[in-house]
Specification:
single chain; alpha/beta; 7 helices
């Protein structure tokens, strides 16, 4: 199957949390790390988030640096990468930052049980692909995006989305910044949630690089293929 190069990027605490037990957007890493995230977005063709992340955080998913946007334009690209959201779309706010901020192309992969009226409403602002299955197949997403010209896909969460793409064997690399903080909480989301893997199914990673930035540690891993 033809697919983009897919990588997950996230910041997490020392205890593996990507948010607090409140499960809302929270700043974990430093400004230097956020600048790195901006470069990763600028180097991607599309940025993908799950519906929980979209509804909770309403991310802009745009390139903040004017210089990086100019560099994209010089390469014949749009200022910002494509925005992609996955899940049941019934609660998507038509006035959201995701939909209205920046001049990026927007795509939704909607679950089959999504409200048909909302599908029509969003269709005026974005391209909407409705799943034929009860759950949206990550392989269908990857194949469709590749067909749309996406060669480098950045996944920015959340934990359930990370799990689904990892389980499907689609993720090539993982970039994670470990920040010197501890959130704790059995209900706080981790880097990868979902149903989880049994011991014999656990994914193996190969460390590609390790870079210390003050008290933070940036780790880059390649996901070993089964």
């Amino acid at each position: 199957m033809k697919k983009p190069f897919i990588f997950i990027n996230s910041a997490m605490t020392v205890d593996g949390k990507i948010s607090t037990l409140e499960r809302r957007q929270v700043r974990i890493s430093s400004q230097k790390d956020m600048d790195m995230v901006d470069k990763l977005r600028a180097g991607s063709d599309a940025v993908l988030v799950g519906m929980n992340t979209l509804l909770t955080d309403d991310p802009k998913l745009t390139v903040k640096s004017g210089k990086l946007r100019e560099e994209r334009l010089e390469k014949g690209l749009s200022e910002n990468p494509m925005k992609v959201a996955v899940g049941r779309i019934d609660s998507v706010n038509l006035d959201s930052e995701f939909l209205n901020y920046g001049n990026a192309e927007k795509i939704f992969f909607a679950s089959r049980d999504s409200d048909t009226l909302k599908i029509d409403e969003l269709g005026d602002m974005a391209d909407v692909y409705v799943s034929v299955d009860d759950e949206i197949d990550p392989c269908f997403i990857a194949k469709t995006l590749h067909g749309l010209g996406v060669r480098r896909l950045m996944i920015e969460g959340g934990a359930e989305t990370n799990y689904r793409f990892l389980k499907a064997g689609l993720v090539d690399e993982i970039y994670v910044t470990v920040a010197p903080r501890i959130f704790g909480g059995r209900d706080a989301p981790t880097l990868v949630d979902g149903a989880g893997f049994m011991e014999g199914q656990a994914l193996k990673l190969k460390l590609l690089s390790m870079n210390r930035k003050g008290d933070e540690l940036l780790l880059k891993y390649r996901v070993s293929k089964r």
